[in-house]
Amino acid sequence: MILEKKRNNPFYDMEECVNGSKSNHIVRHLISAINSGCIKVNDKLPSINEFLSENCNYSRPTVIRAYQKLKEKKIIESIHGKGFYIYKAEKKEVLLIFKQLSYKEKEIYDSLSKILKRSANIRLLIHENNPDSFINFIKQANEFSYFVVFHSSFNDNYYEQHIRNKIPPNKLILLDSKLDNNDEIIAGVYQNMEKNIFSALKQLYPLLKKYKKIIVVHEEKETALKEIVLGFEKFCSAHSIDFQFGHEVNSIPINKETVYINFQQKVLAELIKRIKDSKFKIGKEIGIISYNETPLNDILLEGITAITTDYEKMGQQAAYMIMNDQSLRLDNSFYVIPRKSV
User: Fold this and answer.
1) Residues in Cβ contact with 250 at an 8 Å cutoff, skipping those fewer than 6 apart
2) CA–CA separation, 61 vs 162, rounded Å?
3) Most buried among 87, 96, 255, 339, by the most CB within 10 A?
């Protein structure tokens, strides 16, 4: 099929290149159009002259370089006397690595696979802290185009060392948190936890100001959650609210005028039971906030307020990096869902 010259044609209707190489911009635009199904194998592309007549912001050498790059990638081929044609749309091989498959991991998987369904084969590894299955997949680095690793699910330096030493940096996309040394050459979609928590609590302050204390309940020790703790401490200091960190739900005090912030669903159930036994009124005398949204938050206690990163968007941003062969370091969205529990 010959691509028609009209404004809604994906090859002519290009966004302006704001940053970076214009030839790479053309390449990414065409690859994205192929992966989304707007341009198909065996479609004829516009000639260089036709392209220039519709895109006045590009020079002839730029378009030639772009077409040459596409030929080198074997995405297009030139047939003498006929022009340029889409040669193939090769699917990428993507390995998505999770420790477990909870609600947030499912959100990431669903949004990533929805975007990449035409352009990638996605394999899912749920390692459940099993080093053997994890290492066996890492050894197959040559078989995969990209490794997408939900990094915050690792609490062992053993895994992190293998991620760093066995996966080529240009194939690695980290989700949620960076490696310990804050390596800026590795692509990823990250949470700025200290900033996000402070901003979310500030948004909730009109509801929180009736409380005198915030207790964060998390099974990990404070040292493993440095950014999270800093965010809470900064907010509490700025608003003269007491702060406490507790990692055993059965040992923390249940007191009036206190907000409890829960990080795990299994902790939430026990926390709700203890608060109900105390007879304090939830949302008036005692508050509960969940860190990360789940379907249960909308059902329990007429709704539990949540502060959460946007895991759907996290998966989408990773997918677009893979689709367009980009290496970016992006902050992910974070938002508040106010409900009756505060």
Assistant:
1) 270, 274
2) 43
3) 96
Instruction: Say if residues 231 and 243 touch (Cβ distance below 8 Å).
Output: no
SS3 329: strand
Tell me what pLDDT residue 153 has.
57
pTM of the predicted structure, to 2 decimals: 0.72
Which of 255, 272, 260, 188 has its CA nearest to residue 217? Answer: 260
Structurally, at CATH architecture level, domain 193-309 sits in: 3-Layer(aba) Sandwich (3.40)
Phi, psi at residue 63, to the nearest 5°? -70, -40
Q: Does domain 22-86 have CATH number 1.10.10.10?
A: yes
Dihedral sign of CA atoms 278, 280, 285, 286 in order: positive
More confident residue, 165 or 112: 112
- Kindly report the CATH class assigned to 92-191+311-333: alpha beta
Residue (of 178, 180, 287, 192) closest to 231 by Cα position: 192
Q: What is the pLDDT of residues 102-130, one digit of tens each?
A: 889 999 999 999 999 878 889 998 888 77
Q: Distance between CA atoms of 52 and 26, rounded to whole angstroms?
A: 12
